[in-house]
Amino acid sequence: TDTADGHSAFIPGRGSPSGFRRETMADSGGIQQGSPAIGAAGSVPAAPGAGGTEGSGAAGGSARIAVKKAQLRSAPRPKKLEKLGVYSSCKAEGACKCNGWKSQNPPPTPPRTDQQSNAVNLQEPCRSCSHTLGDHVTHLENVSEEEINRLLGIVLDVEYLYTCVHKEEDADTKQVYFSLFKLLRKSILQMGKPMLEAQESPPFEKPSIEQGVNNFVQYKFSHLPSKERQTIMELAKMFLNQINYWQLETPSQRRQRVPTDDAAGYKANYTRWLCYCNVPQFCDSLPRYETTQIFGRTLLRSVFTVMRKQLLEQIHYSTGEKTCYDDEYLPLCSFTVLVGEKRKPSEPLPHEENKRPRVVGDIPLDLINEVMATITDPAAVPETSLLSAHSARDEAARLEERRGVIEFHVIGNSLNQKPNKRILMWLVGLQNVFSHQLPRMPKEYITRLVFDPKHKTLSLIKDGRVIGGICFRMFPSQGFTEIVFCAVTSNEQVKGYGTHLMNHLKEYHIKHEILNFLTYADEYAIGYFKKQGFSKDIKVPKSKYVGYIKDYEGATLMGCELNPSIPYTEFSVIIKKQKEIIKKLIERKQAQIRKVYPGLSCFKEGVRQIPIESIPGIRETGWKPVGKGKELKDPDQLYSTLKTILQHVKSHQNAWPFMEPVKKTEAPGYYQVIRFPMDLKTMSERLKSRYYTTRKLFMADMQRIFTNCREYNPPESEYYKCANLLEKFFYTKIKEAGLIEK
Length: 742
Known about the structure:
Elements: E1 9-10, H1 57-73, H2 77-85, H3 145-167, H4 171-190, E2 195-196, H5 209-221, H6 226-244, H7 251-257, H8 263-278, H9 291-294, H10 297-316, H11 329-339, H12 365-375, H13 395-402, E3 406-411, H14 421-437, H15 443-450, E4 456-462, E5 465-475, E6 480-488, H16 497-511, E7 516-521, H17 526-531, H18 542-545, E8 556-561, H19 571-592, H20 635-650, H21 670-673, H22 680-688, H23 695-712, H24 718-736
Parallel strand pairs: 1-2, 6-7
Antiparallel strand pairs: 3-4, 4-5, 5-6, 7-8
């Protein structure tokens, strides 16, 4: 339809049944109905007829269109006019009725393609009439460059919709695309802006999904502490984002799945979603809205059941499909459970008596046992038990191992034993995984080390095939192991396999009494190794590993020291239970303390500070002063003690960076960063002048030296390490002198 101001308009739902199924350009294969868009939670869903695989589908369609638009807008003006001439009506004399490329039933091929010659010829005759293309653009001679570029953007959207019309197999969806195609064609002819008109304009229902979720969060969780409330808010944002990029099922698909549903209502909402939310993501000539801002309860109810079910399946691995698991799905799924109907209690982790966390202190053992019974009782698990935003990275992998989905084997080549066919196949699989995931490493080098009898590999097996592993070489005489390669195949990443692999490797080495790892990590692997407990502070003496491990150019040497008393594969479970115990104990303590004390009024009377233990009610909470030592009242005794400690500190081998004040020439900008400098020379002068009347003044100045050093210098610097070592030595001497409790 044409509006009064000359703009073109398309009325969603009027003669244009809705329906949408995303397909790839190469074929007609669609994605599963009602599934999250490729790259969900943060990326743009693939345009119809474009993409459909991870990494390319999410931004592929819209990105390609954006690149084409940028290229065309930077072209010379004659080239732009030639492009617009194909879609503009003829202005030649004789009342020519040609409207350029016919819009009723698009031909099998568009009139122009990018593969054609770059030569510009406005004298070329129009395909629909005998006049030249120049006669089609006479009305554009005095039009601004900005308006020309806007029209060119619509032209590319028209051509893309043309592709969608011919690729789409669903008849209803094809009709919607064709209607939008004609709307944009008419906008070019009339030089107007495309407008979507309907009996109702966005928003279609109030309150919107976004407002409803926000209201729910405020009503349900406003009483929580700020940190927990912030976690819930983040979950809500992720939930809304998932709806914004959720791929709705077509009305015909929904009729087959839910025959008793309100088909007409869903069809109307689906058409609006297609026209206002989905298609405008890749055709930016059309106005675009967020799904959660213009739709309300009706659409949420229609998509929630399918959305929740599929997210839960991906969390709990209840389907046989090898779907991509992402850490973001856990809190997101928790929120869908929260706003939906009641769920079944989640299956608790198996309780192992021999690894029960043990709390030492003044808490009665009966209370500990009572709390333990509470946190391990499935019936006592609250409705929001899935809401942990900090679930362990390896939790899903550990559960898969218990169910037998994945296996871990330490394998290697041997020159003494008869080759095992299965092990050789796994070694070949490992070589393929390492070669694919480490493209900068020569394949010949990878093959040589994987099949080297001196190297072993901890392999991760799933469905009988290798999906990851860690190749290493043990040096028992030197007390360390070198990690050579570590990789998990790309389609199995972000599932906690990498963390669980490293934990198995740690336990394997503890059994073999090797407690140090060394590895050279490139810039992409440093983050992973830090999460696994590695650092740049190498505990192994340099003389132990120089000449033994392979040196890689541009890589960073990192090390990890193992603790033989830690069961690494179950460590996150133990920590989780310990946190739950402490939380329950705090809740019980808070329930016992119900007395409310009046506020402190002493500060209004001029008091500057009071001892913590004098605050009313503080001791009733179980608080005890920590680190409180004896204060030497005799000034001479205090002076003598502090002088002895200072001499010990100055004589330490790591005290050399702190002997004198920092010189501006040696550290430019130091005094802009460090406002209160301190050094051992200044402390000696203060000690001589009897400045340190209490031990706290002395300890504060010494601590300032270490704090300033760590603030100005990077962690890998020698100064930073000296500060850490000298600080430990200082507090050892303070404790020996009895100035603080040991």
